[in-house]
Amino acid sequence: MKNELAVIPKPVSVKYAEGTFRSKGLPPFKGDDAFRGVIETASYQMKDKIDNSLPSVSCEKIDGLEPEAYNLEIKKDRITAQASSPAGMYHALQTIRQLSLSHFEDGELVLPCAKINDYPRFSWRGLMLDCSRYYYSVPFIKNLIDVISMHHINKFHWHLTDDQGWRLPVPEYPLLTEVGSVRKDNRRRRVFGGIYSDDEIKEVIDYAASRHIETIPEVDLPGHACAILTSYPSLGCTGGKYHVEDRFGIFKDVLCAGNDQIFDLAEKVFETLARLFPSKYVHIGGDEVPPTRWKACPKCKKRLEELGLKKPAELQSWITVKLVQMLSKHGKTAIGWDEILEDTPGYQLPNDAVVMSWRGSKGGKKASKRGHNVIMTPNTEGCYLDYKHLDHPEEPGQMYAGASTVYISYSMDPAPSSIKKEDASHILGGQGNLWSELIYAGKFAEYMIFPRLCAIAEAVWTPRKNKDFEDFSQRLIVHRQRLDCLGVQQYRGVLR
Ligand SMILES: [Zn+2]
Asked: pTM score, two decimals?
């Protein structure tokens, strides 16, 4: 393994050549003006290693490569990186960053001569962080984004609202954050809260963008709404009394489907998101919405009659369609958890809505057949990073769908060969999700995320034919040193 580059995710093609590149430090990066931004970011990331007196790594702009593709050539006397766009060049420089963290021997950078051609299998390679159940600080989030970008992850899905706290300031609804961001933490007998200001949100978005990561916000509607209802009780079916939840689970109190004011709130939330987030996507949640209150609520019953629907649960499709349409007026495409697919004739899920498959991959497969774009994040296939690494009493985490070993995460295939080609074309990619019911500290979050996210990164980047778990395990031995150099916590137990 010593002469290997041991890059994760594994590149599409690595051809080793005779000879070795040796240098007393990491050469600086110089190149085409189009790459000024990425060169600046990468130079900052590797500032401790770079020796400006050395002949530089040449960053060349060439035509004919896909936007995220790159070539990297390591010769005895120089290193050349090529890409057609800043995203591709960023990936090239992150591959060099990995080598800069693992291939120094006694103060000398030693690399085998090689030619790498690389590009992603999927365009959506993400991580979701639940910042409602636990409020992760902005410096933590930025550092995490920086580390995942080294693995060519390109989407940060920011879960901003849930029963346990609303973290997004909405000017027209100040109580969402004044009241809805705060809960009584009964286990530790303290008050728990936190919001992200407009400036902090922009700071995270810009920081991620400089690392070629797109930030996608999620506001969960119409369920997981205890924080909303505590702030504005008239939006619920019973009027309360509500409280921001400290327990976990699925709660009966959801937004009242018979109250038009829920759409006034949604509109102002969407206006806020459109103002702050440049991404074309907004995640609207849509998961785990029990119709219990809708069944008993006079306003909801009236709505049901007016719409000619039969079952209270069908009100969710009507709400979802409205939310998706409202977002399109803002030029945004809605993403929802796979429950949004359980629609009703007359209120079918609009074609452009993207389905995020979490209850296994079944929902995603069905959605792709129906022509929806899909993001795979099956909890049964290693994408739920809050699950235990191992079924062992000493391991932290949930066990809802069993343990998620690194091997299970690695084996995840967003578009297995069993899916028809035309359906597979709708599968944008996949991601890991960290729910934070139990994960009460950034360092703890890292332990749950790594190295499973390294495995997921390979599952969404590397061609299926190049995947090999034994080979990955060997490269991971080297890669763990890189994570250690970056001060990232990681699980170190058995992998399968
Ligand atoms: Zn109601």
From this structure: 0.98
